[in-house]
Amino acid sequence: MKIKSGYLMREVAGENIVIAVGEAAKNFKGMIRLNPTGAFLWRLLEEGTDEAAMLAAMLDTYETDEETAKRDIAAFVNAIKGAGLIDE
Amino acid sequence: MNDKSTSSLRETLAEHDIAVVQGKGTSMMPLIANSRDRMCIKSLSRRPKKYDVLVYENPRGIVAHRALKCTDEHIVMCGDNQYVKETVPYEAVIGYVPGILRNGTDYLDFEKTKWCVAYSRIWCVSLFLRRCVLFVYHRISKRYKNESAYARANK
């Protein structure tokens, strides 16, 4: 599971935003704003991390329980998948 | 931009506080080139100040120009590639441009990048000189165009 090429996250004036470049910009005209946790998960997905490794990284970085972390990761991955930004 | 774009930008900023748009026109050249850069627009949570690149509404639509002076009543604006100043009420301001995505990818922060800060100061100070240079340039290009049209018509 990896973020498709052509989608970049940039920190713009204190906000993490995802924009499309090149060919991807022809189909994706908008912008996605990520909160700090979303930006953290996005970086992992850029490296092609799977959900189990994302869970481990999240539990390692944030003070949260496994159940909440799993739910948040699933919600994030579904949202990104829904926007068509992931290569399975 | 038309009324739909205006309300759309206002709605985006109200909802997300930030918008990324591809600019049109040449009024902010050489800093912002429409085919090269994407403008990041943020809603203003502070009072506009001199040197800010502000996005505002005027009779022609939505424009992004630099603030040259902020008085109690209005803001004096001018594009970096223009020499005619425009007076804008505070209510017309929609947001400001904290930076651009150069070539669509690399973020260039206008307030944190030293050369951008220096550029904005020099650009504002040199307005009179630029006005003279642009006036002469526009006159020459207009004359050249007229002469070319005349030459084509007499061929």
Explain this structure to me?
Chain A is of the alpha+beta class and about 90 residues long. Chain A has one domain. Chain A has helices at about 25, 35-45, 50-60, 65-80, and strands at about 1-5, 5-10, 15-20, 30-35, 85. In chain A, α3 (about 50-60) crosses α4. Chain B is an alpha+beta fold. Chain B has one domain (about 5-125): Umud Fragment, subunit A, CATH 2.10.109. Chain B has helices at about 5-15, 115-125, 125-155; strands spanning about 20, 40, 55-60, 60-70, 75-80, 85-90, 95-100, 105-110. In chain B, strands 1, 2, 3, 4, 5, 6, 7 and 8 form an eight-stranded antiparallel beta sheet that branches. Chain B starts with a helix and ends with a helix.
What is the H-and-E element order of chain A?
EEEHEHHHE
Which secondary-structure class do the elements of chain A indicate? Answer: alpha+beta
What is the end-to-end distance of chain A?
5 Å
Stretches with pLDDT under 50, minimum 5 residues of chain A: none
Task: Label the overall shape of chain B.
Answer: globular
Q: Kindly report the spatial arrangement of strands forming the biggest sheet of chain A.
A: 2-3-4
Structural domain tally of chain A: 1
Give the radius of gyration of chain B: 17 Å
Overall average pLDDT of chain A: 88
Oligomer: heterodimer
Mean pLDDT rating of chain B: 86
Q: What integer value in Å does the Rg of chain A equal?
A: 13 Å
User: The biggest beta sheet of chain A, please?
Assistant: 3 strands, antiparallel
Roughly how much helix do the residues of chain A carry, as a percent range? 40-55%
The counted number of beta strands of chain B is 8
Shape of chain A: globular
